[in-house]
From TrEMBL:
Main location per the UniProt record: membrane
Compartment(s): Cell inner membrane
Keywords recorded for this protein, A-Z: Acyltransferase, Cell inner membrane, Cell membrane, Membrane, Transferase
PANTHER family for the chain: LIPID A BIOSYNTHESIS LAUROYL ACYLTRANSFERASE (PTHR30606), LIPID A BIOSYNTHESIS LAUROYLTRANSFERASE (PTHR30606:SF9)
Pfam hit, one: Lip_A_acyltrans
InterPro entries, A to Z: LipA_acyltrans
The keyword Membrane is annotated on this UniProt entry: yes
Protein name: KDO2-lipid IV(A) lauroyltransferase
Amino acid sequence: MKLAFALLWLIRLLPMPVIARLGDLLGLLAYLLAGERRRVGLINLRLCFPEWSEAKRRRVLRHHFGMMMRLLLEYGIVWWSSPERLRRLVRVKNLHYLTELRDRGEDVILFYPHFTGFELCALRLNLEVPLVSVYSHQKNPALDRQIYRGRNRFNRAFIVSRQEGLRPIVKAMRAEHSPFLYLPDQDFGPRDSLFVDFFGVKAATVPGLSRISKLARAKVVPAIARRVGSTLELELYPAWDNFPTDDAEADTRRMNAFLEARILETPEQYFWLHKRFKTRPQSEARFY
């Protein structure tokens, strides 16, 4: 692990276009060698885009592997590069949708789906505002310590373990009206999940965005991390009106519909290697 950290420390010294090119080359190699992950990605794309040709799905997935390798290589930047470099690499668009709510004393949940630029963009946003986030511990102790340290390197993040529940999250949000950076768009198993359409396929989805916003009386502001060439952009959107409602399932479907629209803009940048449809309704056949 020390060797991997040393390599990332050195890679961060390279110009960003070089890191991007290196990520694309390593991504092609990973696409060829990582058969199981390739299989998962193709199943996901076949389920979500049955109208696409198989050639297009494979082309998008090859590109996606490159995006994922860029994400891995950028951890050296996330952990050790200067705030000045982060500001140069990541443009924040429409920050006022967030800051105006905070200035009015409103609590905010940032709906922040899993796009491949999410680590760099989240750290860049943390230079502007304090953030609350949930952390899942890693099996490797050294990696666990480094990721945790990196996400709080500016001492402006309140990081809650996934096992701690909602109360510490809401308490941290209210302390400084710190936005809660929330990533609820993966399969967390059947517990507390609803089966809600995602590209026309039933997907186990936690209705936490609806429930937490109701509990905290918080506004929901979507934020999307995008790669634009070799740099990145974090775009914030207006707070959702009439959210949450009394229908958690309808709220969760609204969340998925918004995410679908953003994925269609840059499909190669979404996390297709995750088993998004692993949890199935009873008696339904497995996809993977």
